[in-house]
Each structure stands twice: as C-alpha cells, then as structure tokens.
Amino acid sequence: MKLKTLGVIGGMSPESTVSYYQCINREINARLGGNHSADIVMHSLEFEPIVRMQRAGDWAQAGEVLAQSARRLESVGAQALVLATNTMHKVADTVQNAVGIPLLHIVDAVADALRINGLHTAALLGTRFTMCDGFYTDRLRLRGVHALVPDAAQQDEIDRVIFEELCRNRPTAEARAFFQSVIAGLQASGAQAVIFGCTEIGLLLQPEECPLPVFDSARIHALAAVTFILEGYV
Hints:
This protein is α/β, with parallel strands linked by helices and 234 residues long. Helices cover 52% and strands 13% of the residues. A 4-stranded parallel β-sheet has the order 5-4-6-7, sandwiched between helices. Strand 1, helix 1 (14-32) and strand 2 form a beta-alpha-beta unit.
C-alpha cells in the first residue's frame, strides 16, 4: 500500500503552517529514509478575514469557510484532514460534519500525549478564545487533563503577542520573558507541564527555555498526522 493522502487546512497563520509541513515531511523521511516525503494536499486560507470573523464572534461564518476548504481537499483526494491551528478547532464539528473523511483533532492528540507521559494537570497558553471559550479546556477534561489558564490580564497580553507578533513572525525578547513568567506562575499553581495551545508559540520559545516540560500542540498534531499517513503502509 502507498502512503495515505493528508489534507491540510492552513494559513492560520502561514508561519505555523510552514512548521506543520516541515515536521510532517521530515518525520516521514526519518522513518522511511531515502527520498520519502508525505503525500499532502493543502489549502492555505487568507488569514485576515478569519481574524475579523473571530473578533466579531461570527463563528458560524468562519466555520463555513473552513468547511468549504475541507470539502475542497476531500474532492482532490485527501483521506483525512488536519486543521493547522488551535483556535479554529472551535468550529471543528462544523468542519467534520462537512466531509466524509476524519478530522484529526488537535486537542485529542495533545491530551493523549500528556496522559501517555503520566501527566494530568497542564498550563494552557493560546489565544484568548482557546484559553477561555471552553471548547479546548472542556475537551481536555473529557480526556483526563485539567488545564490551568493565566489570569484575564495575562490572557489579553498573550493574545496580543500571538496576533501582533508571532503570526507576523516578529517575536520579541520581551514577549519571551513574559511567557516564561506566566508559565512559572502556573507551575507554582500546580501545572506539571505547559501546552503550547497556539501553533505559533513554538516560534517564540524553545523547550529548554521553559520551566516546565513543553507539549507543543503543532508538533504533536503533526506527528499524529504522520501516524495516519503511515497506517497500512508497506
């Protein structure tokens, strides 16, 4: 059997979509050798309209945009989908219901990785939507992981850094120090690890720069995609 074809809904932001593409292909090559790479079809969405929908609370329209993308990828041969963003998993059900192929959910992959390592309480950093809207923390809890989130003022600054700095590939030393202080505070509150619950945070902080073990959602999700791609491969 050949490698399975993965569909990637990307562009949210383009910076993190690049990391998905690199991670998936490098891991496929590491496992198979030679010149092997992944069979990927990708639709990279224009991000600004999505951001405006988020800010306006128009999740129904945002969900339909992503559902259209999912149908498009299915029509050109995708056998499963990856939504290369944490925040837009808020509309994951809309995306999944639009197609007949599986959506590999980022929260499930992250929760499974934590539990495999015997961890059940983790700091969660991401956009304001990811940290406080419930779609992420509730799904983690259903899979046995309790999320600790920063206070409201810290959430505001984290959200600002993500959209104004990281999505535009403009990380700063000040932002790095701020994130480190937030993680240290959540460690003092009982966090055993930190979830990079925004696919751009890995562009700002390396694991060795954090006071807690790092579970980078983008990398974990990409590796879950690799597992799918290799299913049944001979």
